[in-house]
């Protein structure tokens, strides 16, 4: 395919210059109003491309349609397919004043980012660079993240849609695209209307390494522990004061040091993550993120945490503790396994693009997990990016092109094979 690579890059560079950082502490939706600046820009761009049913709602979601070019399409034979990406960037690293840099024809070795020369890409820490020799590597200047997560996905979707629209010899069914907000703070689908999207199956373009299709996420819960002590004037506190901060400290200190945490686990290992702690003598609140690839694994970790809490609290009869579990999301594989074509067609699309396809799992969540459980099976497709949420974030332009090809092939394969 003759993908317009310079146009793809220019499109991507224009998106990353929008500061769309979301805010996990905000009580508004979206969590930051500035996300809508990019949403409005995308709305105008889709209009300019001549797509139909282009709209933006009050939440900042953007929708558009590329109508089928097959007269015989029916919903039974060729379902409407959705492609989804998110406009926001991580709260963890600044996304303001991003200065994208193109490192042409990478030949190996280190890439030192000029804005902060302590930020260095090298094969020891970024082994995927060895598969990008001869490619153009895109980074920030090292003072901000790049924003490939997920503005690369947006650029790839729009470039693929434009390619399909301009190449009348390619067959495809009806395609719906959607750009969401607040994905990075776990709220990307909070007000997302699946019926409005109107797709039977969808794909988030939000993955990393070229060729990967992700069909598994963690199962995720949040555990909130509230420890209630007994406050008292410290000058008259003997045998009366019970310090909730000290109880919380003792509890946390008894968690495993060499296992069951994010920094000690990998691959299919789940974890218990102390995410936040705040409060004082009378009341201290601890939040834990619980992650595992199975629901049974979640329950085991939650039971472990509850048993440990009960053990610690026995030493403080005047204090009490509340243990609350909130469900976040579940492994989308539970749903995707019921619809094998969704993954099979994506894997075939990767192969047609000239890459070796491989399934992978996400040690995290995705909009696709929630959408799958809401009735829209949605695996995750690679963008070609790496080191997301980091000043060392980078992406290969050529791998972005392969993501564009994969999206185009997904649309074609569904038109060829339908629900067979």
Distance between the termini: 26 Å
Mean pLDDT score: 95
Task: Specify the helix fraction band.
Answer: 25-40%
H and E string: HHEEEEEEEHEHEEEHEEHEHHEHEEEH
Radius of gyration from CA coordinates: 24 Å
| Percentage beta strand | 15-25%
Residue stretches low in confidence (pLDDT < 50, at least 5 long) are none
CATH fold-type name of the largest domain: Aminopeptidase
- CATH C-level of the largest domain: Alpha Beta
Number of domains: 2
Query: Could you say what the CATH architecture of the largest domain is?
Result: 3-Layer(aba) Sandwich
Structure commentary:
By secondary structure, the chain is α+β, with helices and mostly antiparallel strands. It has two domains: 5-217 and 331-417, Aminopeptidase; 220-328, Alpha-Beta Plaits, CATH 3.30.70. 29% of the residues lie in helices and 23% in strands. It has ten helices and 18 strands. The protein has helices at residues 5-16, 35-48, 148-166, 194-197, 244-253, 295-313, 333-336, 340-352, 367-373, 397-417, and strands at residues 52-56, 62-66, 81-86, 101-103, 111-112, 120-121, 137-139, 175-180, 201-207, 212-217, 219-228, 271-279, 283-292, 320-329, 358-362, 380-382, 385-386, 394-396. An eight-stranded mixed sheet has the order 1-2-8-3-9-16-10-15, sandwiched between helices. Strands 4-7-18-17 form a four-stranded antiparallel sheet. Strands 12-13-11-14 form a four-stranded antiparallel sheet, with helices on one face. A hairpin with a 3-residue loop joins β12 and β13.
